[in-house]
Specification:
With 350 residues, this protein is an alpha/beta fold. The chain is built from twelve helices and 20 strands. Helix 8 packs parallel to helix 9. The N and C termini lie close together (10 Å).
Length: 350
Amino acid sequence: MRTVFLHGERDIRVAEVPEPEISTGRDAIVRVVAACVCGSDLWGFRGVRAIEHARQMGHEFIGVVERVGADVKRVKAGDFVIAPFYICCGTCVNCRNGWTVHCLNGGFWGTAIEGEGDSNGAQSEFVRVPLADGTLVVVPGGQPADELIPGLLTLADVLPTGHHAAISAGVTKGSTVAVVGDGAVGLCAIIAAKRLGADRIVAMSRHADRQALARRFGATDVVAERGDEGVAMLKEMFDGVGPDIVLECVGTKESMDQALRSARPGGQIGFVGVPAGGPELPVGTMFNTNVGVRGGIATVRDYIEELLPEVLAGTLEAGAVFDTEMPLTEAPAAYAAMDERRSVKVLLRP
């Protein structure tokens, strides 16, 4: 089968490897219908995160179960499934507490999991899914219509990640919200803020196509400025003090600084940007403003079943973040398109 490897900085290759096999009774083999490139994949591609050896790429996919191990009870061959960006058992204390991303028995795609063997990357034709009963979410009704594929794929990561930012920050009916970051996660955070009842949502964006998408998703205002000027504009828009909530969806020092300085005194930051480029929390600023910070790696598996019915009904149109579609064989071009910001998010078809 074909799968995507990162060999080093800006070195993406598609290679032929053996198809995965069932390794334990808890496995499932899934034929990938759609995968994608994530903004976090770009940190390794850009060399921000060094790698010691070539590794398989991708952590977002949806597809059809081909076969399952003898101990798999909830998932069966023929099911159409969504895989969150991590592997989880669904039964340990962290999973039971609603924090499946911190599963005591799980891990991440493309890594080894103790007692479960190696998992492969999602940018592949087939994926072996350890702990299939805990990890996979079955889409009711079987194979969905093709127009639903992009929206369902967002449930593997970006839509529930944006939702996690909004939930962590406490967005509720009447909230005023600014979103730092106009990538797929930031745009999905706008969807989440609107869904939770925010009264006014500001998208921080300098790109006309992303601004238009932000407004389509529910942004009431757009601010293109950054740094001191951007902070000043947000303060002016909200009674001279800033919005109730800022959602940080980038993961750099600059984006966190922007978020912290923009929120009103006593406001809240919800952050889900994967840390890169030296993000830090200035405790002095937080002490002096009473601005709180909450968030982190999104517990996506715990949100999927809540959001899935609305994606199937078409009321959450997050699939529009996929503005480019390419075959898996063109993965190097897909990475380049996202790196150069010619695409918001690229969907890959095996």
